[in-house]
Design a protein that fits this description.
Helix 2 packs across helix 10, helix 3 packs across helix 5 and helix 6 crosses helix 7. The longest helix is centred in the middle third of the chain and has 15 residues. The chain has 2 domains: 68 residues, no CATH class; 275 residues, Rossmann fold (3-Layer(aba) Sandwich). By secondary structure, it is of the alpha/beta class.
């Protein structure tokens, strides 16, 4: 039995938030237990949520009520920062925008054997979770970031952005931009984070993510093509690992599988109220009328897909559309045969997961 602590959080909409509060959402209950019984959320629904209509119920993942209350059932297995014994990578947690919940875990690779730690590139990275689940502090995400930092000889800024539906889309895209600006602010040898000031080569800033985090990374790179980050900092490379994009094309939903597609379609308007649907440019940057991919604000892009990922078709289409857009950059695609969505988090030591990290690291290391 797994005896690690698990946290189950219930949130509800406070009808009278305190003045100056950034959100009216309030934690009403937090419980910690080992291997929580699956029946508990349902029991709580009968008592706490009496008369409260469920507007989304994704079993074992998330339940959202009409009142605004949210129950999350997907465990975040918290891993503390520190020095990773396997890779020698050091990590620590920092606040990006104090008082808002926007923060990050920063990873610094060890100095070369017999040498001193010089300046290294920076990868600003966003975790997955359908915009409403997950954490940069989860053990699987933490382990993956350690590998990226070690193999890529790069600092990784793994962003803990605010989740929907408490902070509806597009709030997390704003968080991503603030995180990038925060990194860029260290370019003049100043800034609040000493590791970035001392060790970051801000002439080599990359942005990436996995699943929904890849979606976030795409929009951050698009914004970098339209706006200045400041301090002369530019985005060099975009890395999309198993990108989470939807679309209204029936052939796409056939490949994805109707059951998976139906659940994702139900989730999207819950995390993005007022959306126009699955061809909303936020969730489908390839849609007709979406901003042209020619405006992508970086010189290189890498897309990683899984051969059995239900969303592999969306990743492939993204590459095709990017290449046809007139974008003047280098694009690469890498596919892990017989692997599903996010396989590297579940099987981090399998040969395909190690190969994927190696491909990303090599792509980032190009001059």
């Amino acid at each position: 039995m797994d005896h690690r602590p698990t946290f189950f959080v219930v949130r509800y909409l406070d009808p009278s938030p305190e003045a100056g509060s950034s959100t009216p959402w309030t934690d009403s209950l937090t419980l910690a237990f080992a291997s929580p019984p699956r029946s508990l959320p349902h029991a709580m629904s009968d008592t706490v949520a009496a008369g409260d209509e469920v507007i989304l119920d994704a079993p074992n993942f998330i339940r959202v009520y009409k009142s605004g209350r949210v129950e999350r059932f997907l465990r975040v297995d918290f891993a503390p920062p520190g020095t990773d014994a396997a890779t020698g990578v050091s990590s620590k947690d920092v606040a990006i925008l104090p008082g808002t919940g926007l923060s990050a875990r920063i990873y610094l690779p060890s100095a070369p054997t017999g040498g001193q730690q010089g300046k290294v590139p920076v990868l600003v990275f966003f975790h997955g979770g359908g915009f409403c689940l997950g954490s940069a502090f989860d053990a699987a995400v933490h382990g993956h970031a350690n590998q990226l930092a070690a193999r890529g000889r790069a600092m990784v800024v793994s962003v803990e952005y605010r989740l929907a539906p408490e902070h509806p889309v597009p709030a997390l895209y704003g968080d991503a931009w603030v995180a990038l600006q925060w990194v860029a602010a260290h370019a003049a040898g100043q800034g609040p984070e000493p590791w970035l000031t001392a060790h970051a080569d801000l002439g080599r800033v990359h942005v990436g993510g996995e699943s929904a985090g890849a979606n976030i990374a795409h929009h951050a790179a698009m914004r970098a093509g339209a706006e200045e980050l400041g301090h002369g900092v530019k985005v060099s490379t975009l890395v999309l690992i198993h990108p989470y994009f939807l679309g209204g094309d029936s052939s796409e939903s056939d490949e994805m599988g109707m059951a998976v597609h139906r659940e994702l379609v139900r989730l999207w308007p819950v995390v993005c109220p007022g959306t126009s649907g699955c061809d909303d440019p936020w969730i489908n940057p390839m849609a007709e009328g979406a901003p042209s991919l020619a405006g992508l604000g970086c010189g290189r892009a890498l897309v990683c897909v899984g051969g059995k990922d239900p969303m592999r078709g969306r990743g492939r289409l993204y590459v095709e559309k990017l290449m046809a857009s007139g974008w003047q950059g280098e694009v690469g695609v890498w596919e892990a045969d017989e692997q599903g969505h996010g396989f590297h988090l579940v099987q981090p030591t399998c040969s395909e997961a190690e190969a994927q990290v190696r491909v990303v690291a090599e792509f980032l290391s190009r001059p």
